[in-house]
Design a protein that fits this description.
Blueprint (H helix, E strand, L loop, with lengths): L1 H18 L1 H20 L4 H34 L1 H7 L4 H30 L7 H25 L6 H12 L1 H14 L8 H28 L1
Helix pairs in contact: 1-5, 2-3, 2-5, 3-5, 3-6, 3-7, 3-8, 5-6, 5-9, 6-7, 6-8, 6-9, 8-9
Length: 222
């Protein structure tokens, strides 16, 4: 399974590296979200610092929708689902590989967003370990959900509008827990943020397990 996952992840990452879509389109879009919101609140430093945790996750969620939607569109156009079904690869390995490739792209986006909120919003990260843990747990969940619902929308003409409708409600707990964890990482509120990271980890485990169990059936039905 792990060998198949590495092969699928390498394939997806090679496609992204050659197309440069993540770097040329998704990454600038995520940073642009930060800039637009800064203009929307008239560059009020206090408001920007207060909304930075939630806005970070909103930008990551929008990037997830773009990346997952593009991956689905490419595979539908090139007939890759049929190739994956006939390849003999472990369906669980396919899921892990595709989710891992999507997570790698999101981590690049999050690194840029981190620089953006520090520079544009004058945010100070007081607990880097908590920040990194929250980002990793949230990214795993977003990548798993995007991959799982992406295969569910394969072959549908309305997948561009269906995918956000499926993903956004499913990841609402991630946005809540992730925002609370980052508020504590930025020292905006008192208390420990590790309980929220624990919740993010539980959600991540649930969606990874669901993807490992259901991806093969969903791929067959796509």
């Amino acid at each position: 399974m792990l060998r198949d996952a590495c092969a699928v992840a390498a394939k997806d990452l090679r496609l992204e590296w050659r197309s440069k879509v993540a770097v040329n389109q998704i990454l600038p879009f995520a940073v642009l979200v930060l800039v637009v919101f800064a203009f929307a609140v008239d560059a009020d430093a206090a408001i920007l610092r207060r909304i930075a945790p939630g806005l970070f996750w909103v930008a990551v969620l929008l990037s997830t929708l773009l990346a997952a939607g593009r991956s689905t569109a490419v595979e539908s156009a090139d007939g890759l689902p049929d190739g994956l079904r006939l390849s003999g690869l472990d369906p669980a390995g396919i899921f892990l590989g595709k989710a891992g490739a999507l997570a790698a792209q999101l981590l690049v986006v999050e690194a840029a967003l981190t620089i953006g909120i520090v520079v544009f919003y004058d945010v100070r990260i007081d607990d880097p370990l908590l920040y990194v843990a929250a980002c990793l747990a949230g990214t795993i969940t977003l990548a798993s959900v995007g991959t799982l619902y992406g295969v569910l929308s394969l072959g549908l003409r309305v997948r561009e509008t269906l995918l956000p409708l499926l993903v956004v409600p499913a990841v609402a707990p991630v946005l809540l827990a992730g925002t609370r964890a980052l508020e504590r990482a930025f020292d905006q509120v008192t208390g420990s943020g590790w309980s929220w990271v624990g919740l993010l980890a539980v959600i991540a485990v649930v969606y990874v397990a669901a993807g490992l169990a259901a991806y093969g059936s969903l791929l067959e039905e796509a």
